[in-house]
Specification:
By secondary structure, this protein is an alpha/beta fold. It is built from three helices and 14 strands. The strands form three sheets. The chain has a six-stranded mixed beta sheet with strand order 2-14-3-4-5-6. Helix 2 runs parallel beside helix 3. It is globular, with a radius of gyration of 17 Å.
Length: 262
Amino acid sequence: MKPEHRSLYVPPDPGLYPGVFPLPHPERVQISGAPAHMHGLRALFVSDVHLRRSVSDARLEMLIGLMRMQRADLLLLGGDYAEDGDSCARFFAALRKLSFPLGAYAVPGNNDPGDAALLQSMMARAGVTLLKNRCASIRLPGGTLEIAGCDEHKYGAPRTDGLFSGDGAYRILLSHFPILPDCACELMLSGHTHGGQFNLMGVTPYTIGFERRFPLLAVRGLHRIGEMQLLVSSGVGVSRLPLRIGASPRIHLLEFCPEVSG
């Protein structure tokens, strides 16, 4: 990937968001260029929840309520669900209260339990399918949607080549890190960056070389990388310092359409 295709500058959001679990803003994102069988489909993308023991049940219920209010057909999860194993189990237990007609799919993040079988078990009890270098296929009226996911890049063994069938399906790739994949897809969904978490006049830790060993494509927002669209979520929670500056927490309601209106 050439450097000019990377988008490490992002304008700051207004606002300061203190605490380890600020409530996110639901953001509607139109995904243009979708085939007819995807039109009208609503997918909820949530990443980087970073739940921890100090977060109250009431606060977690507020997040679950926000997710329910989006009335999505499909749930897609981008990794880093909690800061410890008990909180990870607690997050997926809370997800049991939600249902999505087309299912729920997730990938691991670098903060999640290293025991893949344990993580998969937590997810399965909530009706969530773990996609760790795997692909799932959903038949829709008039066509197929394929959702693939790769392992995280810091401690895992991600593989993105050969994940999709190549039979003309609309392809969505879940990758915790926004790193250029080895496969073609129409849409990639990523997290990890928290939108920079600290954004001062467009300068974030990623602008000045944080995580420089990983060639991140973007820090936040919707981008076009060749034929692929990439959405990088600012996420919900925080890591390390309990504060966001100029990087509002968000969940994303994706609406698929032939072209962006307006």
